[in-house]
Automatic annotation (TrEMBL):
This is Neprosin. Residues 91-114 are annotated as: Disordered. Residues 167-353 form the Neprosin PEP catalytic domain. It comes from Arabidopsis suecica (Swedish thale-cress). PANTHER family: OS06G0474500 PROTEIN, PROTEIN, PUTATIVE (DUF239)-RELATED-RELATED. It comes from the Eukaryota. InterPro entries: Glutamic_endopeptidase, Neprosin, Neprosin_propep.
Length: 353
């Protein structure tokens, strides 16, 4: 009997321990399920809040960058071009320029010394004969989708920082470069064939540009850039568009594309930076170029040029070097840089990739 009683007690103990173990396992699984449910609920509630905050930042940015206009032009490619009074363009967001107006047109020499260029720079928005009134400039309106494609307001309109190379390979960034150095230069010019290459995804781009640089190719790199680019991420399509860019610190914290930040004053009322160029070159067909010239010049003796695009507010000169105009509390001596843009048909059959 003793033996039988011991066996029964052992069996009961085993069953009890298994039952307790099962209850602990079920309790643990239930806790995990409840924890997951709570975490999922929190994520679900936090996600809309983050999205709402992001959209609010985008809307605040758009209200700052899209200036009041006196005329609106709808381009065939879907762009909206706003004719913004010259003194309201982004350059005049600088504290020391607010309330001021652009300088009067530079001194025009007598006809004997006058250098003129036929104004010819066609963009889709102006092909119907539209233009902005004198005293205003055309600015491509930035949309919410433009900013959202960049994933953040901070990234929008800025180049990603990457090492500056003079060769033609590296990092998936394929390019050909022609450059000169070793002297003191006051400007440069180039004639660039315009194409509409098809990029394979939304985050690829293709461009051809003239690029003025100074500095040691380190943190002090300064650039002024102009040309055409195809960039679905920036513009949302595959049109070749006229663009400008500048930086004072190797693309780290300063600079932007086009008129998306303070940096220079535009004076021309017929060219929209960031707008699509038309016509474009075709293989074994007609070829079209844009001529670009960027140079430093004295305002007191400047040949009149009908296609003068911009006066860059360059970097104030201090004993420690160049300063970014966006961050200055006051403006001192500034250098004036200008871009000449013209467009013409050529007979050559070159391809820019």
């Amino acid at each position: 009997m003793a033996s039988s009683s011991s066996s029964s007690s052992s069996t009961t103990s085993t069953i009890t321990s298994k039952f307790i173990g099962l209850m602990l396992l079920l309790s643990l699984q239930l806790d995990l399920l409840l924890g997951s449910a709570i975490h999922l609920k929190n994520q679900t509630s936090f996600r809309p809040n983050r999205e709402i905050q992001k959209l609010r930042r985008v809307e605040a940015y758009l209200s700052k960058i899209n200036k009041p206009s006196i005329k609106t032009i709808h381009s065939p490619d879907g762009d909206v071009i706003e004719c913004v009074p010259s003194h309201l363009q982004p350059a005049f967001d600088h504290p020391q320029l607010q309330g001021q107006k652009p300088l009067d047109s530079p001194y025009r020499p007598s006809k004997g010394n006058e250098t003129t260029y036929e104004e010819s720079f066609n963009q889709l928005w102006s092909m119907s004969g539209e233009s902005c009134p004198i005293g205003s400039i055309p600015i491509r309106k930035t949309t919410k989708n433009d900013v959202l494609r960049a994933n953040s307001v901070r990234r929008f309109g800025r180049k990603l920082r990457r090492p500056i190379r003079r060769d033609s390979s590296g990092g998936g960034h394929e390019h050909a470069v022609v450059f000169v150095n070793g002297e003191q230069y006051y400007g440069a010019k180039a004639s660039i064939n315009v194409w509409a290459p098809r990029v394979t995804d939304a985050y690829e781009f293709s461009l051809s540009q003239i690029w003025l640089i100074s500095g040691s190719f380190g943190h002090d790199l300064n650039t002024i850039e102009a040309g055409w680019q195809v960039s679905p991420e920036l513009y949302g399509d595959n049109y070749p568009r006229f663009f400008t860019y500048w930086t004072t610190d190797a693309y780290q914290a300063t600079g932007c594309y086009n008129l998306l930040c303070s940096g220079f004053v535009q004076t021309n009322n017929k060219i929209a930076i960031g707008a699509a160029i038309s016509p474009r070159s075709s293989y074994n067909g007609r070829q079209f170029d844009i001529g670009l010239m960027i140079w430093k010049v004295s305002l007191h003796f400047l040949p009149f040029i009908s296609t003068l695009l911009t006066i860059f507010l360059s970097y104030s000169i201090h004993k420690e070097g160049l300063k970014n105009p966006e961050n200055l509390k006051y403006l001192t001596l500034c250098t004036y840089l200008m871009i000449l843009v013209k467009q013409h048909e050529t007979n050559t059959h070159s391809i820019i990739c």
